[in-house]
Amino acid sequence: MDILDEPERDHDAEREVDFEPEEAAVLPDQTRDDTERGWGERGDNNDDRLWEDRPPHWG
Questions:
Q1: Cα 42 to chain center, whole Å?
Q2: Among 6, 22, 33, 53, fewest CB within 10 Å belongs to which?
Q3: What are the start and end residues of every segment in region (Disordered) (predicted)?
Q4: Do residues 37 and 43 lie in contact, with contact meaning Cβ atoms separated by under 8 Å?
Q5: Taking Cα atoms as reference points, which of 44, 20, 40 lies closest to residue 32?
Q6: Which helix (H) or strand (E) holds 52?
Q7: Do 25 and 31 contact (CB within 8 A), yes or no?
C-alpha cells in the first residue's frame, strides 16, 4: 500500500492537547532589562541627600 493511496487525515486534529500544563512558564513576568538596574539606574536613592544639600535661597 502506498501512502498516497490512504485517505487524507488530519492527525493533529485528532491529537489530544493539554491546555493547562503543570510546568513552569516559558517566559518570566519581568525580564532583567525591564528593571531599574537593566536601564542602568542605581538601586539606591539619594533624593534625601539632595533635599538636604539644596541652597538656602531655594526655600
A1: 21
A2: 22
A3: 1-59
A4: yes
A5: 40
A6: helix 47-52
A7: no
| Residue in the structure block whose three cell numbers are 492537547 | 17
- 32 with 39: CB under 8 angstroms? no
Q: Please, what's the b/e burial string for 28-44 (b: 16 or more CB within 10 A of its CB; e: otherwise)?
A: eeeeeeeeeeeeeeeee
Nearest residue to 31 (alpha-carbon basis) of 41, 39, 22: 39
Residues sharing a CB contact under 8 Å with residue 9, sequence separation 6 or more, in sequence order: none
What SS3 class is residue 50? helix
Hey, what's the cell of 52? Answer: 538636604
